[in-house]
Write a structure and sequence with these properties.
The structure is a single chain. By secondary structure, the protein is an all-alpha fold. The chain folds into 2 domains: 62 residues, no CATH class; 83 residues, DNA breaking-rejoining enzymes fold (Orthogonal Bundle). The protein is built from 10 helices and no strands. Helix 9 packs across helix 10. The longest helix is centred in the C-terminal third of the chain and has 20 residues. The radius of gyration is 22 Å and the shape is elongated. InterPro entries: Ty3_capsid. It holds the Pfam family Ty3_capsid. This is Ty3 transposon capsid-like protein domain-containing protein.
């Protein structure tokens, strides 16, 4: 155990510190949130972590040659040990694309796509339509090979009862159409409630 910790410490000492990440030539007042460390646990999503990390590095204009070193500084636990083992076996990823492919192959569950579809099946609107749309998109954007009408079906099924009925009456052909109708329904309902107006949205 002590030997593993020493190996990890030695590797991390070779990496740039977070404060040195990004040297944009143009000053910006915008803040880009740093991704959390990825530890390789079952509760973490390697795809969304990679997307978050890549967005941060693109924002800071990190070139591909430095991206692996930056990524390692955001690894911990099992994920960091995985990289240590690769390095000790002289199998360190040769490029950023190679790193993404290898870490995804190692930590993405074999049944990941089935799991995403199960999440869509169980997803329900519990708060605002906007919150539901965000949750829906965070899942469906990771799904491979799902046709548009199937996506529409999942989206409409997860809406609240009245919103779902309203959107179905509009017969949306795309997810964006369904989202627009659901948003319209919520806007009308909000206005009706705030003005104490009796209004039948189904007419």
């Amino acid at each position: 155990m002590k030997q593993i910790e020493e190996q990890q410490t030695e590797l991390l000492h070779r990496l740039p510190t977070h404060s040195s990440i990004g040297t944009s030539t143009e000053p910006s007042n915008k803040l880009m949130a740093k991704p959390d460390k990825y530890n390789g646990t079952h509760d973490e999503n390697i795809v969304t972590w990679l997307i978050s990390l890549q967005e941060m590095m693109a924002y800071n204009m990190i070139n591909d040659g430095d991206r692996i070193s930056i990524a390692i500084s955001y690894l911990g636990g099992t994920a960091l040990q995985w990289f240590v083992d690769l390095t000790l076996q002289n199998q360190r990823p040769s490029s950023w694309a190679d790193f993404k492919e290898k870490i995804t192959a190692r930590f993405q569950p074999v049944d990941f796509q089935e799991h995403l579809r199960e999440q869509l099946l169980q997803l329900r609107q519990k708060q605002s339509v906007e919150d539901y749309i965000q949750s829906f998109r965070s899942i469906v954007d990771q799904v491979h090979h799902m046709d548009e009408l199937t996506q529409v079906m999942f989206f409409v099924n997860g809406l609240s009862l009245n919103a779902s009925l309203y959107v179905r009456l509009k017969h949306p052909k795309t997810v964006e159409e369904a989202i627009r109708e659901a948003t319209t329904y919520e806007s009308v309902m909000t206005i009706r409630k705030s003005n104490h107006i009796k209004y039948n949205t189904f007419l």
